[in-house]
């Protein structure tokens, strides 16, 4: 693997020397940009393997900043990680790199175990050997499972009950990370966030997928009944939460980063149809809906109690309407940031017919 930038900042003095894994992906790229622009006294190294859902176009605005460096690499490669930690003198890690698409996990679960579990273990082991001062592990609300009744919420102490291979791999990674807290007193923080949306998100996820389909005058694919509900958080809000946790979070703690915006997938599709196609009648809206077979298991909802991170001083600021408008504007100009973006506009990932069979009208 080779770095895409050649500048060396090893001898310069910075207050923090931060490694962000998966920093060319969705949330990671926003956190990288925020760190680089807001904190010129921090040195930010972005490590990303440039998988299908990553794009260096997400980072063009900071690519020449003197406190930023991109390195292409895989968290599963221990020797290369050791070299990076030593050469770049890393003292802080924000670990975003992961396989994240639930549908993919049903038919390629071993890839999720390799990246999310083994890769995390390799990374934290190297970070421990390098005596890193803070390690933030990015997890997901899906580790809780989706059986929560209406009106109840998950707190950080709720039991983990993952119901799909992706969620199981993230839960396993959490246990590995926490073992370093117990065994080695290693300074770890875990975060679990609701569904995040906004610019830079690969269109395999529901909001950019629906936007891409409707912009092409095609129908939104609804898994099952579409009544499964999700809580959505705009990406700049979650990026601010990571900055707050980086500076004010407590070692050994877990923080939920949640949203009060809960909406069913069916209602989400209808809202986007009204926005993009201008349809107002139920009959007109239905013309842009296509109900397909559900995934093997589809959690009902993931509401979380975020009072712990809010006590640090964080609050989401972007309204649902504002966030959707910003997202629509970005994808209208940047949908082709990924070479395979068009391939993502299918009911299920290409090649997973062994799990999810034919569509149903």
List keywords for this structure.
361 residues; alpha/beta; Rossmann fold; 11 helices; globular; disordered N terminus; disordered C terminus; dTDP_Gluc_deHydtase; NAD
Secondary-structure blueprint:
Layout: E1 16-21, H1 26-38, E2 42-48, E3 68-72, H2 78-88, E4 92-95, H3 102-107, H4 109-129, E5 134-140, H5 165-184, E6 188-193, E7 195-197, H6 206-215, E8 220-223, E9 229-234, H7 235-248, E10 254-257, E11 262-264, H8 265-277, H9 282-286, E12 289-292, H10 307-310, H11 320-334
Parallel strand pairs: 1-2, 1-4, 2-3, 4-5, 5-6, 6-10, 7-9, 8-12
Antiparallel strand pairs: 9-11
Helix pairs in contact: 1-7, 2-4, 4-5, 6-8, 6-11
Short structural summary:
Helix content is 37%, strand content 16%. With 361 residues, it is an alpha/beta fold. The chain has a 7-stranded parallel beta sheet, sandwiched between helices.
